[in-house]
Write a structure and sequence with these properties.
By secondary structure, this protein is α/β, with parallel strands linked by helices. It folds into two domains: 133 residues, Rossmann fold (3-Layer(aba) Sandwich), CATH 3.40.50.720; 195 residues, Dihydrodipicolinate Reductase, domain 2. It is built from twelve helices and 14 strands. The chain is globular. 52% of the residues are buried.
């Protein structure tokens, strides 16, 4: 089967996210890296792209040059990934969608709800795929959790508890570090810092697993380091549209926590617990029975988990492989669309523009509620109310 062309914008040399995207996109042999605009410094971006193997005429100085150069090519990329700073996501994603490219955008998809609604409208109008990289939902056992909930193993879901707490911004002396400072600057980060950076991963994962969307929320936000304008810790109470209750804690000052993404789901007939730092184990407690440990790669898991698992049981699969599952889903969806067939249901799990929009609405709601001492507010985008 011929490989699909793939282009990358951002993710240049020294980037935290670029290597994960390059590994993820190419792991299964579905995509070839054919075009890129990798750095805000044009010459550095061109040089780095060529060192990675791009042809000189397809290693671009900026995204506009890449758009102009790729639009007219018969071998244009089937997918373009946007991995640039947050404030640029909307403009780039919209431009490539309107030009007929499928897009995978890093989160947050936009900087405002209004921009998010515009991206949803453009994706629907063009018929192109617009995915958002909530890559942690690519983990095999996260997908198995979703399957267990969907088939009724837990019964009606009562509560979901999500955390994404780390301590890597806990040093007040680090306040002027440019890699940290921008995250708490409203001019660059928008209305939220920690919730927009990490909390929306936890919220999206909760919604992904339980199949419900946040309807209302109440937030307590705080800047534990006083020099910060935006929050570095947030506790959010949620009510979901299917009746579940949610509790979400996100923090960047939790010294001793490393990554800190965990999810617990409690239903009428049992409970589940998973942690990103130990992704090969899922803890399952059926009502009235003993605790069970489900291992990634074991027999008789769901089709969703089997499709997302690559190596034998007992070997760790990490974040780049979770990203690779997002890319595998994209490849299947793009091929199914081109061939006029239904995609594999186990691959139809992509976080889409609608999910990116819901995240933007939740960010705005958390900021509003936090300013108003925890007042309950509507967490839905206006177009979904």
């Amino acid at each position: 089967m011929p490989r699909l062309g793939w282009g990358l914008i951002g993710g240049g040399e020294g980037s935290q996210i670029g290597p994960a995207h390059r590994l993820g996109a190419r792991l299964d042999g579905a995509f070839d890296f054919v075009a890129g605009a990798l750095d805000h410094r044009p010459e550095a971006g061109r040089a780095y792209g060529q060192r990675l193997g791009l042809a000189s005429d397809r290693s671009y100085g900026d995204w506009r040059e890449m758009l102009a150069g790729e639009c007219g090519r018969p071998d244009r990329p089937a997918l373009v990934t946007v991995a640039t700073p947050n404030a640029t996501h909307f403009e780039i994603t919209k431009a490539f969608l309107e030009a007929g490219f499928n897009v995978l955008c890093e989160k947050p998809m936009t900087m405002s709800v209004e921009e998010g609604e515009e991206i949803v409208a453009v994706a629907r109008a063009t018929g192109k795929i617009c995915a958002v990289n909530y890559g942690y939902t690519g983990y095999a056992l996260v997908r198995h959790m979703r399957a267990m909930v969907a088939r009724g193993d837990l019964g009606a879901i009562r509560m979901v508890v999500a955390e994404f707490a780390h301590g890597h911004h806990a040093d007040a002396a680090d306040a002027d570090n440019p890699r940290v400072r921008w995250r708490y600057d409203p001019a660059q980060a928008g209305v939220s810092a920690q919730f927009a950076d990490c909390g929306i991963h936890a919220l999206h994962m909760a919604s992904f697993v339980i199949g419900q969307q946040a309807e209302r929320l109440s937030a307590d936000t705080v800047s534990c380091i006083p020099s910060r304008v935006l929050e570095d810790d947030a506790m959010v109470n949620l009510r979901f549209d299917g009746g579940a209750v949610g509790r979400l804690w996100t923090s960047s000052i939790a010294i001793g926590r490393q990554h800190g993404l965990t999810l617990q789901v409690f239903g009428e007939k049992g409970g589940l617990r998973w942690a990103q730092e130990q992704p090969n184990q899922l803890y399952w407690m059926p009502l009235g029975q003993r605790l069970q440990v489900i291992e990634r790669g074991e027999a008789n898991l769901s089709p969703e988990a089997d499709r997302a698992s690559r190596v034998t049981i007992g070997h760790a699969e990490g974040m780049p492989l979770a990203f690779a599952n997002i890319y595998a889903d994209l490849a299947e969806m793009i091929r199914a669309q081109a061939e006029g067939r239904a995609p594999d249901p186990a691959a139809d799990l992509l976080p889409r523009a609608e999910d990116g929009l819901r995240s933007m609405a939740a960010i705005a709601a958390v900021a509003e509620s936090g300013r108003d001492h925890g007042r309950w507010v509507d967490a839905r985008p206006p177009m979904f109310r």
